[in-house]
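Predict structure. Chain length: 506.
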Amino acid sequence: MNRTTLSLIAGATALAAVTGFAALSQPAAPAPGTAAEAAAQLPVERTSLLCPAPSTSDLAETSYTSFTPVTKGTESGGKAELRAAAQKSADGTDKGKGEEDGKSGQDKPAEPVLTPRQPGKPVTGDSSGGDAPALVGTADGGFAPGWTVQETTEVAAGTGRGLQGVNCTAPDTDFWFPGASADADRTDYVHLTNPDDSAAVVDIELYGKDGALKSAVGEGITVQPHSSEPVLLSTLIDERQTDLTVHVNVRSGRVGAAVQALDDKLGGDWLAASTDPSGSLVLPGIPKDATSVRLVAFTPGDADADLKVRLASPSGLITPAGHETVHVKAGMTSATDLGEVTRGEAGSLVLSPTDRSVPVVAALRVVRGKGDKQETAFIPATRPVGTRATSADNSGKGSTLSLTAPGAAATVKVTASAGSEGGTPVSKTYTIKGGTTQDIEPPAPGGLKGTYALTVEPVSGGPVYGARTLAVTEGGVPAFTVQTLPDDRGTVAVPEADEDLSVLQK
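Prediction complete.
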């Protein structure tokens, strides 16, 4: 075997261990007879997740749920751990790291704050107050494929009061957040978390209704190793902007990024990144009792985008009256109020080009309740469920699973895991008609004790998109949070070396 073949086999082996940013579960179908056609889908061997600091409120109560689904072909062993990231105090020094034997705590790894015991069973943790740090996590072996961590925070009063939830994210180098704001009533932070041993350098670009906004202080932001930096959007620009698109572009290194959007009157939630710019987008899981839905869209290219707007309802695709299309000018953030678009039924928004396809990113701001009893959540455009997706934090009540098949009908299997403190897993199969959205009261484990995870796996049919809504009423406020369910990227395509690389030995 020559050196070229050995190098390629080594590359394929390394690829199997890459996670998050390189572990795609459903690659495009290869051409018949090509080497890629023989590629095998193997479980990833290592993955990373980053959880932002949950709140600065003294009234915050935060829970964390970590879960890894059982994956066929995965070897036993391995572990998953979440540790506190370094934070900066007002004087710029590390806090929460103590000193020992004359050395700063930066040289001593933080103790794990959450350590799962076995795949297939969630583990939970909690924190109180406004000093909880960001978390940096890694998983390997049998704990890596599909590892999911959910962070959920209840804030009793003040700016952002209500329920805030976010799926901890894999590190990456490029993020789009349409739906952010620097309005007078909003306090929006971009949380940047660096999992690596070297500093990351990040640019934050902002786009308003008239285009790019100048921001010298948004360029070259340094995020120190194993640390987190919250950046207040209003400090980056000189003018108030109701609707913003935030682009986080990493010059060197990689980070996890999420936007915490807090409103003085409408509560708040986390805004997760939109899926990569695309000509067609799906935004699943609008609650049926939504009283206000606002679509924010942005196209990063040089061409305007004209989008057809449709609602996937329980009975089929519907064009909202008065909002048949949306025009998005190149480089400018567009916002459209859709009102009570769901009209008491489950719904998901489906955007497609009216003519030529222009890449777009988009998100929804959704409001439930009326008067001074309103609460906000966000739904970004997302990838399809693909091979498998997971919602980690569910209880016996308050969870709604929303599944959408925008094209052909699809059959999916939904599995409720064992509870964190006991219970027996249970699975149920659902058929989603083409062009519809179905809200499902998810199955619960038998004899449930504690928190459980929901895993969604398509069985047959067309692409499926999903979201999980977690709701609780506190003091008359319909608090809620929505997390989309993209493919967990728990497997990676690895070429069969014996067949695929033989041509290189000639």
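Summary: The radius of gyration is 22 Å.
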